[in-house]
Specification:
With about 350 residues, the chain is mainly beta. About 15% of the residues lie in helices and about 45% in strands. Strand 7 and strand 8 form a beta hairpin. The two termini are about 15 Å apart.
Length: about 350
């Protein structure tokens, strides 16, 4: 009888508990405080996030690694020095830039608690007035994508700093000898970025260039890129396949805007809709052709308004910001089908044990 009672108890508890999983899709962990000068940057596969906050004394920005207990400052904690963190890989290496002014930023990587400047090798004979560089993304091999400029940011050149220390100006390979920037790099070393040509981006795989019609912001390890393209006056979230074919993620009528900012290998894309800043936008998830407001997938009792989603990792965790600039990491809860499969397994084991007991 004891096993029979356990069998029905398990069934009853599953019947009560299972609907709750379908109501809430993500748990929420607040990893940054609130304030108008907090920005989310990148997210690795361990759920670690980086970005920047501003100093109350001067308003300058300082690069930080976000955590559940607060922020770890990784940039120089000195007044009048701005630092920004754009990405973090699974080894905890962080890339970004720092400098006294926004127009004198220099690309940096933070490794093992040490700050290392990323060198810029200039082969052009043109006069150099003010070298500026920014590192935007790093993969797990340690390859870094970004850009540099010799005229204070007026004309950019897409670059890759390889993990072996070599420097590659890839601007000429991307059909834009001047006016290119690299925004992301995947585990294969493919690079995505844009050019100064109106509504033209690129994916560089080895020496093969695929031009995209629109503005691409990120790509996954399969070579799919995301960003936005123009539909009339509106920016619309877009995904491009490996051949450069575009598909609109946002199929709404004219008068709506959206930008996709992150994509993982499962094809899940995240971004922002109906605004270009967290204060006014809505954090979005595009999944299997469906556009989902992420606010509908979190516990409403938290009273959070998610304004943007900037990255998604291979575990499905999402880096987002609220309309009050809080930085949060969303972690998916088990799918309803998974819960039922676990429940069925538990019921089967309980039933088997009961039958053996009876025999």
């Amino acid at each position: 009888m004891r096993f029979q009672r356990e069998f029905f108890a398990i069934a009853f508890s599953l019947a009560l508990a299972s609907p709750a999983w379908s109501d809430i899709g993500y748990t929420v962990q607040i990893v940054g405080g609130s304030g108008l000068a907090i920005n989310a940057g990148g997210l690795n596969n361990l759920g670690q996030a980086v970005g920047e906050v501003s100093r109350q004394s001067t308003g300058d920005f300082i690069a930080v690694k976000f955590g559940p207990s607060g922020r770890d400052y990784i940039g120089p904690n000195n007044d009048w020095i701005n630092s920004f963190a754009g990405d973090i890989n699974d080894q905890g290496e962080i890339v970004g830039s720092q400098g006294a002014y926004l127009w004198t930023q220099q690309a940096y990587v933070w490794r093992n608690g040490q700050t290392q400047a990323l060198p810029v090798v200039i082969s052009s004979s043109e006069p150099v007035r003010n070298v500026q560089s920014v590192a935007n993304a790093i993969n797990n091999a340690g390859d870094i994508a970004g850009w540099y400029s010799t005229d204070g940011g007026k004309t950019n050149n897409a670059v890759v700093w390889h993990h072996d220390g070599s420097f590659a100006d890839i601007s000429a390979l991307t059909n834009g000898a001047h006016g290119t920037a690299a925004y992301d790099i995947n585990e294969r070393g493919d690079v995505v970025g844009d050019t100064t040509v109106d509504q033209q981006s690129f994916v560089l795989s080895g020496t093969q260039v695929t031009l995209l019609s629109g503005r691409a912001m990120a790509l996954n390890n399969l070579g799919s890129a995301i960003g936005y393209s123009r539909v009339g006056w509106d920016a619309r979230a877009t995904v491009w396949d490996q051949q450069g074919q575009a598909t609109l993620l946002d199929q709404r009528e004219t008068g709506n805007s959206s930008i996709a900012l992150g994509i993982n290998d499962a094809g899940l894309a995240v971004g922002i809709a109906d605004g270009y800043q967290p204060e006014t936008g809505r954090a979005m998830l595009w999944r299997d052709g469906e556009a989902i407001d992420l606010n509908s997938l979190i516990d409403p009792s938290l009273r959070l308004q998610l304004g943007s989603a900037v990255a998604i990792n291979e575990q499905g965790q999402i880096l987002a910001q609220t309309r009050y600039r809080q930085v949060v990491v969303l972690t998916p809860v088990p799918e309803l089908s998974s819960v039922w499969m676990m429940g069925i397994g538990g019921l089967a084991l309980a039933g088997l044990a009961w039958r053996r007991r009876q025999s």
